[in-house]
Design goal:
- The chain is of the alpha+beta class and 499 residues long.
- It has two domains: 164 residues, no CATH class; 302 residues, no CATH class.
- The chain contains 15 helices and 14 strands.
- Strands 3, 4, 5, 6, 10 and 14 form a six-stranded antiparallel sheet that branches. A six-stranded mixed sheet has the order 8-13-12-11-7-9. Strands 1-2 form a two-stranded antiparallel ribbon.
- A hairpin with an 8-residue loop joins β12 and β13.
Length: 499
């Protein structure tokens, strides 16, 4: 009997069943927790992806132009489709996240499953929440101009856990909780292969441009044709130019190289350019004039295909009376100036913006005496062709070699090197800054970093430079809304997530 009791006492068969019975609730509980963690993680992942997609879609429209808030709302409402699962919404827990278009007039709004606010800045630390101090101005016209980011929040959605936590707490609501997500995205714009030049927006003060803005000027041949005298005199009024910091240094040689090079290897961001406006007229003159076949720069990789400038002998052109020379067909006529620049009576922009009334008929008769004016250039009045259009027509239709009545042809002289095959060799690219507004806000341009650019633009250089301080140009195109897309090869626009 004792032996039987002792054998039973030491018999361990079936002990696993006892242990499993004891630990089974814990095993089931941890399994349910693992399932719940997977489900809630999937739900949060779906919501976060939705927030990211809405933010990126909205941010891509924040170009600082009027209507950007409405366009941002429209992008979120029409371009994004997201689906989430494992919430308490609907019988299956699967639902679509949507947005809407409540009007585009408020800096903060909501529609569908999301809410959003347009921001002008972000807190210094990613761990710091956005506050009203980061919001764009509530006045739409001001707020749209300064908006750089959008914060999107997905409305909290319920999640019901399988793990029966309510049995432990006695609270039936403890089995569920809300899951939400937020994302912040911004719009960045920049250009590459650009010359290190910035221009103070010639159209910033609309009271002296006849009410015309930069964007309006870019859209109209009548306004693009206005000849502008860019001046580099060390001041920063509308129409003045200076220089940006170059990644290769900012000495005179580097500046000349960047102005003479057909494809400068540097990039600039609209969010902020670094100014380095030290003035040196020699590199400016030599660098730019090399584009006209005037062999003044050892850094030039070649002149333009079309260098017609109204003079066979450049030394004679410099020494002559410029006004008389440009209007005398027997000596040769370049893409001459607007009438008020010739007479010295310009009134817009401190006397440095013309009315766009250059004498195209005289230019054509002097430089293509055996050809009738083509239909593409036959406009008059408001439809008079721009100088840039004439320059490109001569290249595109192979009439650069036509001899003028004075004997000049458009090809560069043999000593100037092989012409660059890029037709737009005579374009000057640069950042356009609202210098008046920036100075009013306390911006100093001497060695200043991260100065916001309104646009990047291209200007056609209408004639060679004599003194290195004044550059005669026509506006050709701008980046962003209002532009015609000719700068797309230089432009790098992208929306990116910041938090």
């Amino acid at each position: 009997m004792l032996r039987t009791i002792r054998a039973f006492w030491h018999d361990q068969r079936g002990i696993a069943l006892i242990l499993v019975s004891v630990t089974l609730p814990a095993i089931i509980g941890f399994s349910l927790l693992a399932i719940d963690m997977s489900r809630v993680n999937n739900l949060h992942n779906d919501l976060q992806k939705a927030a990211d997609a809405f933010a990126l879609a909205g941010a891509a429209e924040l170009d600082g132009l009027p209507g950007s808030w409405a366009r941002s709302e429209r992008a979120m409402a029409t371009l994004v489709t997201n689906e989430a699962t494992f919430s308490t919404v609907g019988a299956t827990g699967r639902f679509n996240l949507t947005s809407g278009q409540p009007g585009g007039t408020a800096r903060c709004n909501s529609a569908g499953n999301i809410s959003w606010c347009f921001l002008k800045s972000l807190p210094a630390s990613d761990g710091t929440l956005v506050t009203s101090a980061n919001y764009a101005n509530a006045t739409q016209s001001i707020g749209e101009d300064e908006t750089a980011f959008i914060e999107v929040k997905v409305a909290p959605t319920g999640f019901a856990a399988i793990f029966p936590a309510s049995f432990l707490t006695g609270n039936s609501a403890s089995n569920g909780f809300n899951v939400a997500a937020r994302a912040t995205a911004g719009f960045t714009s920049g250009v590459c292969d650009y010359t290190p030049v910035f221009m103070c927006n010639p159209y910033e003060d609309t009271s002296i441009t006849g009410g015309v803005t930069l964007e309006q000027a870019a859209q109209s041949r009548q306004y693009r044709r206005r000849q502008i005298k860019l001046r580099g005199d060390g001041s920063y009024a509308p129409g003045n130019f200076a220089f940006l910091a170059s990644p290769f240094g900012n000495g005179a040689n580097q500046l000349e190289k960047m102005l003479a090079d057909s494809k400068p290897q540097n990039c600039y961001s609209r969010d902020g350019v670094d100014t380095e406006p030290g003035q040196n007229s020699g590199p400016v003159k030599d660098g730019i004039n090399s584009r006209f076949g005037i062999n003044a720069s050892s850094f030039s990789d070649g002149p333009a295909v079309n260098v017609r400038k109204g003079a066979i002998n450049w030394d004679q052109f410099v020494k002559s009376n410029k006004v008389n020379y440009q209007t005398d067909p027997t000596k040769g006529i370049g893409l001459e100036r607007d009438s008020c620049h010739i007479s010295g009576t310009c009134t817009m922009m401190g006397g440095r913006m013309g009315a766009g009334d250059w004498n195209f008929a005289r230019y054509w008769a002097a430089n293509h005496p055996l050809r009738a004016v083509p239909a593409a250039l036959s406009g008059t009045g408001a439809n008079l062709p721009t100088r840039y259009e004439v320059y490109r027509y001569e290249i595109d239709n192979n009439i650069v070699s036509d001899a003028s009545v004075g004997g000049e042809r458009g090809q560069p002289p043999a000593g100037a090197g092989t012409p660059i095959s890029i037709p737009d060799r005579r374009l000057l690219y640069g950042a356009v800054l609202d210098c008046n507004a920036l100075q009013a806000a306390g911006t100093k341009f001497n060695g200043r970093a991260n100065v916001p650019a309104r646009r990047f633009a291209s200007f056609f250089i209408t004639e060679p430079i004599i003194d290195g301080k004044d550059i005669m140009v026509e506006l050709v195109d701008i980046t962003g809304k209002g532009g015609s897309g000719t700068l797309d090869n230089y432009l790098r626009d992208e929306a990116q997530l910041y938090r």
